[in-house]
Amino acid sequence: MIELVHLRKEYDNVLAVDDLDLTIPQGEIYGLIGPNGAGKTTTIRMTCGLLSPTMGRARVAGVDVAQEPEKAQQHIGYLSDFFAVYEDLKVWEYLDYFAHAYKMRESEIPARVSEVIAEVNLEVKRDAMIRGLSRGMKQRLGIARAVIHRPKVLLLDEPASGLDPKARLDLRSLLLGLRDRGATILISSHILTELEGFCTSIGIMEKGRMVRSGRIEEVTAAENPARLVRLSWSGDSPAGDSLRTVQEQLQREPRISEVKLATGAGAFGFAGPEEDLAPILAGLIAGGVKVTSFGEVKQTVEELYMKLSTHEVM
Amino acid sequence: MADYAMRIWSNPEFVRHRRAELRPVRAITVGAVVLVVCVLVGLACLSYQHTIADNLRRWDTQEGTRRLAQIEDQFARTTWLLFYKWLIGMQGAALTFWTLFSCAQSVSGERDRKTWDFQRVTRLSPAEILIGKLLGEPVLVYFAVLCAAPVTLIAGLVGGLSFGTVISVYAFLAMTSLFLGLGGMWLSTLLESRSRAIGLIGALAFYGFTLGARGLEASGLPGLAALSPLMATFALTKSAGVGHLLRPVLFGHEVPWLLMCFLLCGSFSAWLAVMLVRNLKRDYQEIRPLSRWQAVGCAAFLNFLIFALLRPAGLSDFSQYGAAGSFPDAKSVATFAVAINGLILFLMGLATLTPQERLNVWRRKRATGEAAMFADDGLPWPWLAISAIVAYGLMIWGLMAWGHALPLGMGTLQTAAVQLLMVLVFVTRDVLFLQWCMLTRLRQPVVKGVLYLFLYYAAATVFIIIASISSRDAGRWVMALLTPVQVFDADAAGFAFPVATYVGLVLQMVLASAVLVAIDTRLRRPVRVGAAA
């Protein structure tokens, strides 16, 4: 759905994006992460046709953005970190303007405007002047603008910066709803918790280059061949019987490594599939260990980023 | 036609402005204010006419009585005509001024409000944005004029003007305001949001230029005065001493001011529209007014205008004008054309400067043989040379065409060739210098580059003055070495210029080559890795 091929952008004598290759299939939510100045915004602006690449090409829904910008923009919804709106229009007029600007069919515009207004919970403000809206409402209106023409691809550049927690949750559920309807979403952020549990794929950019890219589980697996498993138990005797049992049980399994145990708790690495953890747990319980918790510790996007990033902020 | 009108009426950008600017309360208020102003102006005109009549009654002389009888006989007609002139003058001023200034903030204002990117990513084509903004930004003043139009029409008709004249005046005002609006919008695209104030100053200068163009009426190119909104209005409404108003010439034939206005405003508007459509949806950093071929075409068009609008002295048809301000011989026309080409080539060079990013790509491709010297992203100097050759060709054509009025000798063409070569070398050097400035880290490199050039020529003038104090020859040598002015020496004939002129030519060519080397050195520097989003 989004295809970036050898994309390169130079600003004067500065290389902002260097030979970027990226393919995002339909229905993905792709999180582009990296420090400020890594080239995320430039990448998104080139993808939506706001900037011409120095070299390479961007294709959206099979359309070359540089060759047929207006055709490509039919499929693109763009949202940036600022929610600038025309203050001298009414809410419905603003959305009606963009519906016409995206050349939607005249007959479907009124219904679509009402639908989008409802999606962002602005029904009561439909006929209000935009200048009278609160900041949060203007932000929601900005989101409504980006999706008014039912884009197949949403390009979101730091969309949640400046949003309050409630608005962030609303944005997240709106985007998940769009994803469920088949939209492909490319979202850039340097606030990693924003992307947690939300993106299906990630790409880490630094100095204009893609350091790592792929589905989250694949990237995690590539970085961590062994799963990190934490466990805890109770009722250990002063002599440490349970601790010894745990140690023995874990040593029997050749795929276990980096065992770190203390009284009542511990962690180890396991280089096998998730379902193979069940016999290990069963063995511990059969050995008389009163296991109170046992499970894989999923790596957060933040941890993954910290591991992969070279932390060179430009 | 109706389909086009409908498409304009439903243009989303126009609709947005219409909705925002013409809400019912505001529209009613504007309409009421316009009508009140019309009534007040009408009463003032009536009072003025009464005052004149009263003053004439007090004279009590034969002449006074005769004029009083004349005024009383035509009282109603002259009062309505005066009323019409005031109304149309006010509408003309409001329309042209407001259109220019609102359009001069159209794009920079959107950049300032950060709404411009959202408009650029819609499916609106540049032409649709252009039409929407041009008609939408000043929609309030259009509405005000529309409110005043019926009163103006009645005043004009009762005042003795024909329906055609009244409509022609409106058509002319519409044409002029669209031209000014396009000029304003063009200024606006060139400015980042931070420099909106500069845009307004630029718009004011542009307005002053168009008004001041009236002064060109008595020049050798009288048609250029048609760029002033005053000329056609005066001619149509028979105002401002119309008996003395000269008529412009086109290919040696007198034409009405209205036609000249339509030709000039129309053709300049077309060039502005080409530049806007080419650039409206581009990022600020990527704006380049014209492609290289378009720039050559524009330079050719401007050269063509010189010979199309020329009014040579000595033609019996124009004997009533006298020789003042017109061209006495072919040499003066050629010298004028070369001097004007200095300006045209410089502006063309400015319009075709290549951004560093594109120049870098061009250089890399050139190194591998993928790009040509004349590529659109290459250096501008080959195109300046092409434009100069086209200008020279047009000069030969123009001077030969005017041969019946301005006898042409071979020496004139030879002199013009050397003059044009000198001007081309200086302009190339200056444009390459500006291109070099664009490769440096200067903020607003072109503006600063132009200021540096201004300083250079100011310093050169000082050196010439200092050298002239010691001897006249020394002054001429310095002038020839540092500026192109000396090449316009009236004593030059054929290729026979002073040695200093040719030395200056060689020196400037060496300097231009040095700037080329400096540009190449800059382009060889590796790009720094990092982002500047």
Report on the architecture of this protein.
The complex is a heterodimer of chains A (314) and B (533). Chain A is 32% helix and 29% strand. With 314 residues, chain A is an alpha/beta fold. Chain A has two domains: 2-221, P-loop containing nucleotide triphosphate hydrolases (Rossmann fold, 3-Layer(aba) Sandwich); 225-298, Alpha-Beta Plaits. In chain A, a hairpin with a 2-residue loop joins strand 1 and strand 2 (14-24). The mean pLDDT of chain A is 84. Chain B has a domain at 7-284. In chain B, strands 1-2 form a two-stranded antiparallel ribbon. In chain B, a hairpin with a 2-residue loop joins strand 1 and strand 2. The radius of gyration of chain B is 27 Å and the shape is globular. The two termini of chain B are 45 Å apart. The relative contact order of chain B is 0.06. The model of chain B has no long low-confidence stretch (mean pLDDT 86). The chains are: A alpha/beta (314), B mainly alpha (533). Chain A binds chain B through residues 9-18, 37-42, 45, 48-52, 54-55, 69-71, 73-74, 76, 78, 80, 82, 84-86, 88-90, 93, 97-98, 100-103, 145, 207-208, 314, and chain B through 10, 12-13, 15-16, 19-21, 113-115, 117-125, 281-283, 285-286, 355-357, 360-361, 439, 441, 525, 527-533.
